[in-house]
Design goal:
Elements: H1 12-30, H2 41-46, H3 50-53, H4 55-64, H5 74-83, H6 88-95, H7 99-107
Helix pairs in contact: 1-4, 5-6, 6-7
Length: 123
């Protein structure tokens, strides 16, 4: 999908290697925890992440030098799910957050206007 929101810097390596769908699935499955990312084929095949993304992708993430602790990236995931057409309550349930928090994440998204659209910007 070409209109997906741009990933933040800490998520970009996951999107570059796994694609948007793969990155979303990986972050939902392993976000907030440490994941062993081996760089050899036999060790990568034994990694818990290999069942989800495959041994080659596990090795690619390990070679890319991404952090062993997978980010939760909930504000970005909220914007991704919103572009997929999910409503705020559905996003909140999926991300284990409140609807108030999801609305804040969506409102604070880069490129969003602040305040009243009828009022001119001061700066």
């Amino acid at each position: 999908m070409s209109n997906w929101p741009r990933p933040p810097a800490h998520v970009e390596p996951y999107v570059r290697i796994l694609g948007y769908e793969g990155a979303v699935a990986f972050i939902l499955a392993f976000g907030g925890s440490e994941v062993y990312l081996p760089m050899t084929p036999t060790a990568a095949a034994r990694s818990p992440a290999a069942a989800l993304i495959g041994a080659e992708s596990v090795m690619a993430l390990g070679l890319a030098g991404v952090s062993r602790r997978v980010p939760t990236a909930k504000p970005w995931l909220a914007r991704v799910f919103r572009t997929e057409g999910l409503r705020v309550p559905e996003i909140a349930r999926k991300l284990h957050a409140t609807d108030v928090t999801v609305r804040k994440w969506l409102k604070d998204a880069p490129g969003q206007r602040w305040g009243d659209d009828r009022q001119m910007r001061l700066f």
